[in-house]
Amino acid sequence: MTVTWEELGWERVAPGVGRVRLPGWDCTAGLVAGRDGALLIDAGSSLAEGARLRSEAERLTGRRVTHLALTHPHFDHVFGAAALAGAEVYAAVGTDAVLAAGAEELRADAVRNGLDEDTAEEAVTALVRPRHPVSGELTLDLGSDRQVLLANVGPGHTAHDLAVLVPGETEVVFCGDLVEQSGEPQAGPDAVPSRWPAALDRLLAFGGDDALYVPGHGAVVDAAFVRAQRDALAARFGVSP
């Protein structure tokens, strides 16, 4: 039985392109449907959340999730990845090493932020490391009707920030936590504040003035919002224009 994006709590951003705001940390996951498969953008904060995303993505598209793009290596974006068995996993170059060496810190950070200890331990034990590092730009082919561009636009929010551009009549850019709308952008110990404004400059060049920008947390925004956040971050961190 066909379901609509809205019936499953998803927001349709453009034809074949949508996103959902997950409970707990208001983290966004994105979905792009193609003729031959589907791309999920970020995987949620637990194996159960990843399984939910996979099930809903397959119901919405009628296709299996063939690709997974991780925008950055934080628990609320990567812990569900193991539930996407068989998907090809992409991330900014260096993410693999962070997940390999920093699994315990990811677990501890998740618990500090309120994730159940057993749930965090389960996710860390099954943690999926990306097989496809993106150092510049890379095009994914989801079928003759759909190509998606991945770009390593960081560092900024972390040292390993990946953006996803979906071309179309209205272009859509999934920003990860380089952009946040529901609160002030978070700069943790792995952020690179001095280079964050430049990362947003690259993001804006990537999408352009007419694109829709999907933040890691919060509502969809436009280029003016991203530009204003860029200026605010530059002022906050003392970065020259």
Structural account:
- With 241 residues, this protein is an alpha/beta fold.
- The protein has a single domain (6-237), classed as Metallo-beta-lactamase, Chain A.
- 30% of the residues lie in helices and 27% in strands.
- It has seven helices and twelve strands.
- It has helices at 47-61, 75-78, 95-101, 103-112, 117-125, 196-207, 223-237, and strands at 11-14, 17-21, 28-33, 38-41, 65-70, 88-92, 132-134, 137-141, 147-152, 162-166, 172-180, 212-217.
- The strands form two sheets. It has a seven-stranded mixed beta sheet with strand order 1-2-3-4-5-6-7. The protein has a five-stranded mixed beta sheet with strand order 8-9-10-11-12, covered by helices on one side.
- Strand 5 (65-70), helix 2 (75-78) and strand 6 (88-92) form a beta-alpha-beta unit.
- The longest helix has 15 residues, at 47-61.
Instruction: Figure out the total of helices.
Output: 7
Percent of residues in helices: 25-40%
CATH class: Alpha Beta
Determine the mean pLDDT. 96
Query: Largest beta sheet: what is the strand line-up?
Result: 1-2-3-4-5-6-7
Q: How many domains in all?
A: 1
Quantity of strands, as a count: 12
N-to-C SSE string, H for helix and E for strand: EEEEHEHEHHHEEEEEHEH
GO molecular function: hydrolase activity
Pfam families: Lactamase_B (PF00753)
Domain Metallo-beta-lactamase: 26-217
Keywords: Hydrolase
